[in-house]
Amino acid sequence: MTTPSQTVGPFFGYALPYERGWELVPEDHAGAITVTGRVLDGAGEPVPDALLELWLGETGTRGALDRRGPGASGFGRCPTTPDGGYRFRTARPATPYLALLVFARGLLRPVMTRVYLEDVPDPLLDSLEPALRATLVARAEGTGTYRFDVRLQGEGETAFLEF
């Protein structure tokens, strides 16, 4: 007999966040960038109890929680604020994108997407129609800061990947 799926939240807001989880690199890391944004539901309302994981995925990274020294940890975890906001400080990835996993109430499992720091030739991006492609590209907001809003459903829904 198969056990039915259950939603992934909101318990994760209490059990999974850890201190300074949003910092994949220290503040003085050369070339550090900040990725910030909001998680929004289908009506465009903020999701105040989501949890995001950012994966750098670059070779040569240390253990997931090790933030000492000049390297990057490769992994960060950040709960959303009451207005649905989040932020990560990370190193610029060796690939053209960062991997982002979103846990939110009502989901049967987390959803995964990519955060492209610029619109570049890429097999995944090239396979998408322009409107969907645009949902994966972060907007530069000054030097070293990128905005990437996650829309869970509805108009402007972020492109999510199967894994």
Automatic annotation (TrEMBL):
Keywords: Dioxygenase, Oxidoreductase
InterPro entries in UniProt: Intradiol_dOase_C (IPR000627), Intradiol_dOase_core (IPR015889), Intradiol_RC_Dioxygenase (IPR050770)
Keyword Oxidoreductase belongs to the record: yes
GO MF entries: ferric iron binding; oxidoreductase activity, acting on single donors with incorporation of molecular oxygen, incorporation of two atoms of oxygen
Pfam families the record matches: Dioxygenase_C (PF00775)
Intradiol ring-cleavage dioxygenases domain boundaries: 29-97
Keyword Oxidoreductase belongs to the record: yes
Family that this chain belongs to: Belongs to the intradiol ring-cleavage dioxygenase family.
Name of protein: Protocatechuate 3,4-dioxygenase subunit alpha
Organism: Planotetraspora silvatica
